# Entry
Amino acid sequence: MYGWTGKLLRVDLSKKKISVHDIRKKWLVDFLGSAGLNAKILYDEVNGEIDPYDPENRLIFGFGPLCGTLAPSSSRYTITTKGPLSFAFSDSNSGGHFGPEVRFAGYDTIVFQGKADKPVYLWINDDTVELIDAGHLWGKDVWESEEIIRKDLGDPDVKVALIGPSGENLIRYSAVINDHARAAGWGGVGAVMGAKKLKAVAVRGTKGIKIADPDAFEVKCCECFDLVAKSPRMATVGYYGKPWLNWLRNEVQKSNPVKNYQLPRVPSEEFSKVGLEAFKEIIVKWKGCFNCPMHCSHIVKAKAGPFCGEMGEGFEYNQMIDGQMMGIYDLNWVVKWTNVTNRLGIDCDGPAYAIAWIMELYERGILSKADCDGLDMRWANQDVTFEMLRKIVNRDGIGDVLAEGIAIAAKKIGKGSEKYAYHIKGGRLEIDPRTGWGTALSHATSTRGADHLKGTPLSNAYGKWKNIPYDFTDDSKTAFKAEAVIFFENLNTVVDSLGLCKNDTWTQSAECPGLYEFAQMLSAATGVSFSAQQLLTAGERIYNVERAFNSKCHLTREDDSIPDKFFTDPIETKLRVLNRKEFESLKDTYYQLRGWDVATGHPTPKKLRELGLSDIAKGFETRKTKNTRGKKNA
Amino acid sequence: MISSEKQASSSTHKRSLQENVKVSSNKPNRILISNPRACIGCRTCELFCSFQHYNEMNPARALLQVVKDEITGVDYPVICRHCDKPKCMEACYFGAIKRDTQTGAVLIDSKLCVGCKNCLSSCPFGAIRIDPKTGGVTKCDLCGGEPRCAKMCKQGAIIYLEKNVAPSIFAHNAAAKPAKVLGDAK
# Structure
């Protein structure tokens, strides 16, 4: 087989049984691979009623047909599971060098099921796959464990994706970390891995990937490299990396999460401390993921303060807003926070948003110092941040409550704290929905909870595709917003399913490679002819499967909501504040265009059949559409 | 037994060195340089190298390697420097390592190679590779005079330059920094 390796590795941790299966060609063509195939497997194999930590839940690692190939930024892999934050569909995506290595070993998908009786890790050495005891690694942090695994296996070039103490202790927002600083952080995939007592996946691949038409593929990939090199994003994200987004959101879009959304953005007089000039000061060098010309990552070194000399990678927009959420405008702290969260194997945003929320409750007097285990939780108190993080990871005192994520923690704490816990389907809000209608709608409808990478229009690609004048920055009107969000949801699903990075594709810039280029690259790689429209339809198909799984988990239209605050408190953006009536009517339009049921938000059997998903459609005809999710998690 | 083997080898080795001298006066004058300070560790070079040589994407078969140290953040492109006095050539008992007259590349003649791996341990730069498919030793061949790695590296971490131009370029790059400081001072 060309492009795809066509092999699925199934690991039953309960029975300690490892088997290799051929993946049906039709599935590969219909669902492309990676995120798409993962969604299909999850839908087919996982019951919507089970607890995410149930052994019957699946943890699926997917590697797309372009992952590990000449295509620019071909480093991404996706982990899909029933997530412990949303209690529904959850997937998370990471770059680095781990994904390509699995492809070189000859696998497209790894499915973990069951639960090991004691900690184990999986060692894949091409065709030799075995489960190895990980008792000596349990409790050790990510970096230490990675080094021990490499030493144990006697190969310094082994690539490892693993969890830290956070995943072991089932913190609901635990990450899977690979290459020290690359995290699949969204939705708590690390916690599911911890529940399965799977410490790590170590891999060494030497089999390589074969291409159907090498010459055509090479020409196309080199053209894509040129497109990326010429795109305006090279001067921004290519130079500054993601910290550029912090500047963009704060200074241009005028919306940035600060102090648990109390402030609409970092005050201008403070912004220089976290601005681009300040960031430039701490850059040591650029870093790139596998085959990436964009290199948005950096090695950074703290230059002052108590963390002076701390050096690490993976400094992103996320970690900057983590600080800003707690009122900390200090890049040196961010360097330390990045390293500590990476070592613990925790999604950096999870504890940050939880701590910021606690700080707000403390300020408002809802929680006292005694409630916070004697910690002085005032804004910008750097000392308590790491202590609180330690408490969360060790499930110590109030940390045990916060470890459940703000949605569940708010129910436990009560006392009106729910009002300040901003989340959608359990997922933290990373971008202010008041930025515009596209942002608001896509955050509400995203299948994995509040998220800007599922469908937020972040480029003019929709206009390019439809050949119409379209400016994504003009987000204050509802016109074309539902259409654009649907387009981006389908497009982003395609990018994830191919194994590419969204950073240098249409997702982020219309000048970068898009559907036309993907279709040409994929056709040359696999020998199966794809058109751009076919890819977009595959994206739609996959998105419908994701949505269908959520329906199976009893999520409905009411779960596609946005916290009340964003309907009441205006900020400086053009849109200022969301209007409830307009929002609901935008949702109506969205469901109608999607071909879904407007009242429930469930995919309709008609739509599913149209997309060739008749097996899923059958189940939907008999499905009850009652929402029992709220009761279940209470 | 051992001494006679040694003798035989040293004579072969001498012969190959003489060949070498003759050839290098023929001066293919471009050199492949590794510049770790510019490397971002994306391994595009490894990927394209394997594609160039075997039509497949398989960095394990690449004829160079980027060694990554995640703790210090160092990415080091380990490439063959095609030395003027190659240690691998000295170490080969069988004269299997020769210099290409056209490109100046130090090459392994697979017909003469017995697979003793002497070259592997003798290269101070760790540039000799073992092909996981064939099990035999391989090494960089400069892609017949147009090294793909250098062409693909947009960071300038692997560069292929004229011998007399290379020092000038490095000199100018180094001078750019103080020049900027002076400019700022004005």
Q: What stands out?
A: The interface with chain A takes residues 37, 40-44, 47-48, 50-51, 54-61, 68, 70-71, 73, 75, 132-133, 152, 154-155 of chain B (CB under 8 Å). Chain B has a mean pLDDT of 84. The CA atoms of residues 149 and 177 of chain B lie 27 Å apart.
